[in-house]
Write a structure and sequence with these properties.
By secondary structure, this protein is mainly alpha-helical. It has helices spanning 2-13, 15-53, 68-77, 103-107. The chain has a domain at 10-58.
Length: 109
């Protein structure tokens, strides 16, 4: 009982401080819930994006000669492959890439 009396007297005497503390606790709870909601929405948006973009589940990079006919035959004969796509990658050397708008980079072209 003594603790409740002390707590009651403290709350009555320092109303402003307790109100400010309560305000900041409520504000932090609000910001935390907004952050969690943002993470959930971002996750859902990424799922929808990958679904619409039809990104592959498996990517294999290859260099050298490519036998597209053999790849097509293998993918048709394998029951685990639902869709197959072959894309040609662009090969760019590092000296063909520019970073920024520096005059030196533009003069080398």
């Amino acid at each position: 009982m003594l603790i409740f009396k002390m707590l009651k007297n403290d709350l009555i005497a320092k109303k402003a401080i307790h109100f400010v503390i309560l305000f900041f606790i409520m504000l932090s709870a609000l910001l935390m819930s907004i952050g969690v909601n943002l993470i959930i929405e971002l996750s859902n948006a990424l799922d929808i994006f990958f679904e619409k973009a039809q990104t592959p589940h498996f990517v294999q990079m290859h260099s050298g000669e490519l036998n597209q006919k053999a790849i097509d035959e293998w993918s048709k004969s394998n029951k685990l492959v639902h869709k197959q796509q072959t894309s040609e990658m662009l090969s760019l050397g590092g000296n063909n890439l520019l970073w920024g708008n520096s005059k030196e980079a533009l003069q080398t072209m």
